[in-house]
Amino acid sequence: MRVLAFLDGTLADPDAAHIRVDDLGLMRGDGVFETVLVADGKPRELRPHLDRLARSASMLDLPEPDDEAWQRVVRTVIDNWTGGGEFALKLVYTRGIEGDPEARPTAYAMGLPIGEKVIRARTEGVAVVTLDRGIAPDLAERAPWLLLGAKSLSYGINMAAVREADRRGASDVIFTATDGSVLEGPTSNVVLARGRTLYTPPATIGILPGTTQAAVFRGAEHAGWTTKIEPLHADELAGADGLFLASSVRKLTRVHTLDGKALPDSSEIHAELAAAYESVYA
Amino acid sequence: MRVLAFLDGTLADPDAAHIRVDDLGLMRGDGVFETVLVADGKPRELRPHLDRLARSASMLDLPEPDDEAWQRVVRTVIDNWTGGGEFALKLVYTRGIEGDPEARPTAYAMGLPIGEKVIRARTEGVAVVTLDRGIAPDLAERAPWLLLGAKSLSYGINMAAVREADRRGASDVIFTATDGSVLEGPTSNVVLARGRTLYTPPATIGILPGTTQAAVFRGAEHAGWTTKIEPLHADELAGADGLFLASSVRKLTRVHTLDGKALPDSSEIHAELAAAYESVYA
């Protein structure tokens, strides 16, 4: 099942057409989005997701999102969801119709089932390749017009990177900067475990601040882990005790293979961290 | 007026909704497009535009566009256009609905009037700022997953760059590479005149091969100019005899101001080159 609601609260048929061909979200990838995990009727990390939506919107000079309206529409979708216990909730916010003098954004929330591939990735882990993102780690601060770190609808590169991973026999990607810095996955953040410490790179290098990564870190700290947000180098990935991708719908996913080489088994660390993450919502 | 036709030839109301919220063109900027100038009922550079559409589609691993169907739908829009003598014709081709097992692309052509701002730019020229695109000139060949040189729907950066230009009191942008190489405009190619020679950078550095730039070059060669496709450095821009942006709808636009400094008057060169360009279609 799927549930679609527009920001004004109107429920709509997700199989019908609702968007004009000249919506700038479509014509120019000119808009922002979020994907929230809903589990047992509760949206996880909704506050950080809505904060990040507002941050992305600001980076794109979109009108400030109406936070209360977004909270209401999230509730509307959840209240109308009669599917399984967990689902993905997408929030989409575009610049609206090209040339509209009133500049009304297009805004909707949609509940979607979680695909089998995602469920499998959660339990089995994933093979990942590193791919050059072609940018320096200081670029985001130097050139804000490149929208690095905005969750924009212009995700064509991210999708192309996943297809490249597929060609290389993997299913996901870790982007690296020109100096070898670890950036992020196309739809995830990188988390590395070494001893009892978790690491993730800082958002200032031009990546999305991770909502799930932050939740994992909170849960892990509670379970006695140390957490550090600091630059990581691609050379450090293979030698870690555990390498993970954090994303809302896939939660914390174990990377079992990196650039074609099997990594040391991190199943136990993964189980502990996955439990620490779930404990945040217990 | 506007005319909308889908690739199967169906005419549709451009003010109605035709696109689903889960179209990947919208959700992920996952698709390609072209903008063709139609003048006196004839599409200009249609062959190069359709070739480029196919090239972009291939870079995004989209199904090969049905060339004859695109030619037909272009004809359909033109035949139904009752507006002025010149209009913009957009071709849009997306990956279609997420999860569609038949993977049918969304494909349409739309005729749109040419805005006043464009008409003004054609006659008065534009103020331009150079902005760092943050990439090395060899990146496109090294990292095809970055889709450099594909005309994809993920144009968020290009739109953000134009807003940055606006903040700096200009109306357009010339992107530069990390080594100072001249790349392209967000929706145009850079053409530089020095003596009786025209220059534009090669597409291999990760930019779109220009349909209008190529037409200008053909016309100019016919009028006795030499043309060269070779790397240009940002330092060369201000000292040229003429600096221009070439794009389908704006044609050859004179840059009168670069990074806040007035450039030498290139009106005469512009008039000659504009005439040479028009002569291609005479």
Please give a quick description of this structure.
Chain A is of the alpha+beta class and 282 residues long. Chain A is 29% helix and 27% strand. In chain A, strands 7, 8, 9, 10, 11, 12, 13 and 14 form an eight-stranded mixed sheet that branches. A six-stranded antiparallel sheet of chain A has the order 2-1-6-5-3-4.
Structural summary, described in words:
The first copy, chain A, is α+β, with helices and mostly antiparallel strands. Chain A folds into 2 domains: 3-114, Aminotransferase class 4, branched-chain amino acid transferase, N-terminal domain (D-amino Acid Aminotransferase, Chain A, domain 1, 2-Layer Sandwich); 119-279, D-amino Acid Aminotransferase, subunit A, domain 2 (D-amino Acid Aminotransferase, Chain A, domain 2, Alpha-Beta Barrel), CATH 3.20.10. Helices cover 29% and strands 27% of the residues of chain A. The first copy, chain A, contains 8 helices and 14 strands. In chain A, strand 13 (251-258) and strand 14 (261-262) form a beta hairpin. In chain A, helix 7 (211-222) packs across helix 8. The longest helix of chain A is centred in the first third of the chain and has 14 residues, at 46-59. Chain A is globular, with a radius of gyration of 19 Å. Chain A starts with a strand and ends with a helix. The interface between A and B is large, with 58 and 58 residues.
